[in-house]
Amino acid sequence: FTPVQDSVTVVPGETCLAFFTAKNNSTRSITGISTYNVTPFHAGSYFNKIQCFCFDEQTLNPGEELDMPVFFYIDPEFCAGSGSDNTELYGSSAPLHFL
Question: How far are the Cα atoms of 25, 87, 95, 99 from residue 21, in angstroms, in the given order?
């Protein structure tokens, strides 16, 4: 399970599409669900997911590889509320938890 892009540049208030790739290297079907994390912690309230693979369980068949999208935007209030124009502080992860 890895991000497709090393990084994305996001303009606050504009939507952005990012992808993660998951591959099932096993010989059986697997099902998992992701939890999405944003750091630093205070930035999470400004990160708005419009559509995300993390909303639903994902099932991958043996050998299947799947690109999974996250469509989101960052609330423009982040720049005003953080007291900084530095949005490079954003980091995100979406660990996949198998059921």
Answer: 13, 25, 12, 18
- Six-digit token string for 37: 């994390």
Q: Nearest 5 degrees, angle CA 17-CA 5-CA 94?
A: 75
pLDDT band at residue 38 using 50, 70 and 90 as cut-offs: confident
Average confidence (pLDDT) over 23-49: 85
What is the Cα–Cα distance from 87 to 65, expressed in whole angstroms? 31
Torsion region of 13: left, alpha or beta (phi above 0 gives left; psi -120 to 50 gives alpha): left
Q: How far apart are CA 6 and CA 59, in angstroms?
A: 25
β-strands 91-93, 37-39 pairing: antiparallel
Kindly report whether the global pTM for this prediction surpasses the value 0.85.
no
**CB distance 12 to 76 below 8 Å:** yes
Higher pLDDT, 17 or 8: 17
